[in-house]
Design goal:
Layout lengths: L1 E6 L4 E8 L3 E9 L1 H5 L6 H22 L9 E7 L3 H18 L3 E5 H7 L12 E6 L4 E8 L2 E7 L5 H11 L7 H9 L23 H13 L9 H30 L3 E5 L6 H14 L2 E3 L11 H11 L25
Parallel strand pairs: 1-4, 4-5, 6-9, 9-10
Antiparallel strand pairs: 1-2, 2-3, 6-7, 7-8
Bound molecules: 5'-O-[(R)-(carboxyoxy)(hydroxy)phosphoryl]adenosine and zinc ion.
5'-O-[(R)-(carboxyoxy)(hydroxy)phosphoryl]adenosine binds next to helix 5 and helix 6.
């Protein structure tokens, strides 16, 4: 079975082909980041229009990359939510129309299930059950995963997502949107412990997160260190980036440790854009060594949005005979716990 996957939930157009025997045989990505950077964030209408321009050419590229014709595709998986409604509608409409024309089944995939299963595309794939830490621009969630579709939400952010907090703090430090990776780069030059940021919600039980206070803490620290011209010296910028990043990472680690201890699970999967953060990976590896468990990640290019994770998640479900109805239906809000277990 060969599945074409289409991702258009936000600011990346991703198209990939997953083959049951050979694994991933095509992967195409177009990022709109530069276009949105001028506006300091994603402009939904521009995102939708750009997906319209890019999706069909990328599908053609993916078929060419895999040396296939449309007739050799057995099903189509597309992101049906959560995400920006206009952007989701573009991918879903194209996917449904092609599926109708090619006479193959199509399935609306949950974007976060795609992220969660992305580590399974790696050679060292995790076995079930595991704890998943999903950290993206829109979500911060700790999920107990017993199998495909068997998810229990253990905790989530009550305000900003981890990636969102990175991006907002990066903006305060004068970095372009989305500034997560650039902030991490600044942090490398930072002096440890010059500033100590709080570790929000770690002094009380539970597995929820809150990151919006860290952005305010960063703003106050920046204001207290501006020179007469209202500027921040480079070392102080790096030191603030370091303190912010370490606070987010420590908070994530404290909650991961709790989730693992609470469930007795020994495998931890981390996915979503923030899982590309090298310091986070290093600190999680250390945690898992202490706990005698193992941590699994997608390769860096599959941490952020991509078509491969959608093709793969869709493949698992289409193979079991699942398919969505002909109507183009998207779900901008869609709790992952509403998904059904794999048949
Ligand atoms: O999963 P993703 O591509 O898109 C969403 O579904 O949201 O995640 C994007 C987020 C952005 O907030 C970006 O700043 C953040 O991931 N990010 C990082 C790093 N690389 C990307 N945050 C911290 N460190 C990084 N190295
Ligand atoms: Zn995502």
């Amino acid at each position: 079975m060969r599945i074409l996957g289409i991702e258009t939930s936000c600011d990346e157009t991703g198209v990939a082909i997953y083959d049951e025997q050979q694994g991933l045989i095509a992967n195409q990505l177009y990022s709109q980041i530069e276009m949105h950077a001028d506006y300091g964030g994603v402009v939904p209408e521009l995102a939708s229009r750009d997906h319209i321009r890019k999706t069909l050419p990328l599908i053609q590229e993916a078929l060419k990359e895999a040396n296939l014709t449309a007739k050799e595709i057995d099903g189509i998986a597309y992101t049906a939510g959560p995400g920006l409604v206009g952007a989701l509608l573009v991918g879903s409409t194209i996917a449904r129309s092609l599926a109708y024309a090619w006479n193959v089944p199509a399935l609306g995939v949950h974007h976060m299930e795609g992220h969660l299963l992305a580590p399974m595309l790696e050679e060292n794939a995790p076995e079930f059950p595991f704890i998943a830490l999903l950290v993206s621009g829109g979500h911060t969630q700790l999920v107990k995963v017993d199998n495909v579709g068997e998810y229990e939400l253990l905790g989530e952010s009550i305000d900003d997502a981890a990636g969102e907090a990175f991006d907002k703090t990066a903006k305060l430090l004068g970095l372009d949107y989305p500034g997560g990776a650039a902030l991490a780069k600044l942090a490398q030059q930072g002096t440890p412990n010059r500033f100590i940021f709080p570790r929000p919600m770690t002094d009380r039980p539970g597995l929820d997160f809150s990151f919006s206070g860290l952005k305010t803490f960063a703003a106050n620290t920046i204001n207290a260190h501006l020179d007469d011209e209202g500027k921040l010296d480079q070392q102080t910028r790096c030191d603030i980036a370091h303190a912010f990043q370490q606070a987010v990472i420590d908070t994530l680690i404290i909650k991961c440790r709790r989730a693992l201890q609470q469930t007795g699970y020994q495998r931890l999967v981390i996915a979503g854009g923030v899982s590309a953060n090298q310091q986070l990976r290093q600190d999680l590896a250390q945690l898992m060594t202490q706990l005698g468990g193992e941590v699994f990640y997608p390769r860096p290019q599959f941490c952020t949005d991509n078509g491969a994770m959608i093709a793969y998640a869709g493949f698992l479900r289409l193979k079991q005979g699942e398919e969505s109805s002909l109507a183009v239906e998207v779900k901008p809000r869609w709790p992952m716990t509403a998904l059904s277990p794999l048949r």
